[in-house]
Amino acid sequence: MINSMTTTFHYLSVLTEPLMARIKVDLHDVYNNSRAIDQALEQAFEEAISKKIREVEIIPGKGSGQLKKKVLRFLDQPHIKPLYHRMEKDSKNFGRLFVYFKF
């Protein structure tokens, strides 16, 4: 699990409308900590699956694009890929991804 003494990141569950929840993971604060990025994403996926939340919004930010590439590599791992249904890049905001789960 995540050690809050050494790692800080924004991890929010946001209720968007009744019976429809979205998990939002803002990775700005951990952009240079690969382990913390993986832990934040794993925790978000665990919560989405356990609570049957269909959408996870991941915000790597715009920057140089390296953090977004790290997130895409995470999503493409053989043990992670079967957990979600599809991934979508936000066409209006380069620094945001959506991962959808099918239950």
| Known CATH architecture | 2-Layer Sandwich
Question: Considering DSSP H and I runs of 4 or more, what fraction of the residues is helical?
Answer: 25-40%
Topology as a string of helices (H) and strands (E): EEHEHEE
Q: What is the arithmetic mean of pLDDT?
A: 84
Order of strands, widest sheet: 1-2-3-5-4
- Approximate shape: globular
Distance between the termini: 25 Å
Strand content: 25-35%
Q: Would you count the extended β strands for me?
A: 5
Largest sheet, in brief, is: 5 strands, mixed
Radius of gyration using CA atoms only: 13 Å
CATH class (first level) name: Alpha Beta
Assign the CATH topology.
Answer: Ribosomal Protein S8, Chain: A, domain 1
Number of helices: 2
Low-confidence parts:
1-9, 13-18
Number of domains: 1
Class of secondary structure makeup? alpha+beta
Write the layout of secondary structure elements.
Layout: E1 10-17, E2 20-26, H1 34-51, E3 55-59, H2 66-75, E4 86-89, E5 97-100
Parallel strand pairs: 2-3
Antiparallel strand pairs: 1-2, 3-5, 4-5
Account of the 3D structure:
The protein has 103 residues and is an alpha+beta fold. The chain contains two helices and five strands; from the N terminus they run ββαβαββ. It has helices at residues 34-51, 66-75, and strands spanning 10-17, 20-26, 55-59, 86-89, 97-100. Strands 1-2-3-5-4 form a five-stranded mixed β-sheet, with helices on one face. The longest helix has 18 residues, at 34-51. 18% of the residues are buried.
Key traits:
single chain; 103 residues; alpha+beta; Ribosomal Protein S8, Chain: A, domain 1; 2 helices; 5 strands; 27% helix; globular
